[in-house]
């Protein structure tokens, strides 16, 4: 079977063996073991790289028959490394099935090399949407009222004054409007016009919402 894949994690096992966790377009997230020749430094097996894999299934595991590098995403700075590691951390927390849309999203956002404070919450919001985990942000998730006063991580969306509880995060319609924009529009368009001051709270809420849904 041939499929494109992104290397999420690579562990050296010794004697030229390397254990990889890859997210593939067709199979989703799978674990494989590859044999690396002595003296070889194959970028195609490094974290964040995108490669074309030819896999052979043996029982409940896969072996690599061949792999060809499509794009390396080696971080050129600490900021790039931190950004890409955050994306990978999200992907490693879920049992991801194969999805062309999710794979394209991962491929596109791992290649971004600037404006990370915007790129990360944009990836997170789009990922939640594609996975069917996006929170309710247009109305009260409890009663349906259009008033918005806070965000309830436990309930999975915004709540009105009457339905809010202790521990909810303060929220408003401006934040809802911004997170919808991050989800719907492409990165190159949003980077020209976004509200930087809202990003920390949006990131905090989306990360909390994601963690609550998968724990």
TrEMBL record:
Keywords: DNA recombination. Gene3D superfamilies: Nucleic acid-binding proteins. Pfam families: RecO_C. GO terms for biological process: DNA recombination; double-strand break repair. The keyword NAD does not apply. One of its GO terms (cellular component) is bacterial nucleoid. PANTHER family: DNA REPAIR PROTEIN RECO (PTHR33991). This is DNA replication and repair protein RecO. It comes from Thermovibrio guaymasensis. The lineage of its organism: Bacteria, Pseudomonadati, Aquificota, Aquificia, Desulfurobacteriales.
